[in-house]
């Protein structure tokens, strides 16, 4: 059996696959999501139900200094991160660690963590996560942590509800890649 190539279609937000199958998509041509206060995010999947990745999630986050990639949380699957450019701050299990270009972070299932942009220019981070147990109602949770709250990257009360965890942030908006996000 041969797996077909998924054709790419141009939309107002970038190129998207129009079917399931293999594809090649340059990050500068893919749709992005501007998450005011949480940086920009390259979306390689999830285009109205087409090209949903059932086994592995992957994205690129571009964070200005102080911007959190997420709220402090754990997932019930492993998650891994690679800093491609700039500097970041990792808060993991209550500890703060500085990250720089080419630092790799491995978070086994159940590891509380968050990454924030740091340094003079922020950072570009690739995030990869398994999808076996980290989707659905038992995905994990946003947990309370003093360091994360101090850096505006944490919740005051534990929750599993993303809407509650991200209530202070403006709505995300789909957009095209903006020059300068990637180095």
Strand content: 35-45%
How many helix segments? Answer: 2
Principal-axis shape equals: globular
Helix-strand makeup class: mainly beta
Q: How do the helices and strands follow one another from N- to C-terminus? A: EEEEEEEEEEEHHE
Number of strands: 12
The whole-angstrom Rg is: 16 Å
Biggest sheet record: 8 strands, antiparallel
Distance between the termini: 39 Å
Low-confidence stretches: none
Helix content estimate: under 10%
Mean of the pLDDT scores?
93
Question: Concise description?
Answer:
The chain is mainly beta and 183 residues long.
Q: What topology does this entry show?
A:
Blueprint: E1 8-11, E2 14-17, E3 32-34, E4 40-43, E5 56-63, E6 73-75, E7 79-92, E8 95-100, E9 104-107, E10 113-130, E11 140-142, H1 146-150, H2 162-165, E12 173-175
Antiparallel strand pairs: 1-2, 3-4, 3-12, 4-5, 5-10, 6-11, 7-8, 7-9, 7-10
Describe the structure.
The protein is mainly beta and 183 residues long. The chain is built from two helices and twelve strands. It has helices at 146-150, 162-165, and strands at residues 8-11, 14-17, 32-34, 40-43, 56-63, 73-75, 79-92, 95-100, 104-107, 113-130, 140-142, 173-175. Strands 3, 4, 5, 7, 8, 9, 10 and 12 form an eight-stranded antiparallel sheet that branches. A hairpin with a 2-residue loop joins strand 1 (8-11) and strand 2 (14-17). The protein is globular.
Give keywords.
single chain, 183 residues, mainly beta, two-stranded antiparallel ribbon, 2 helices, 12 strands
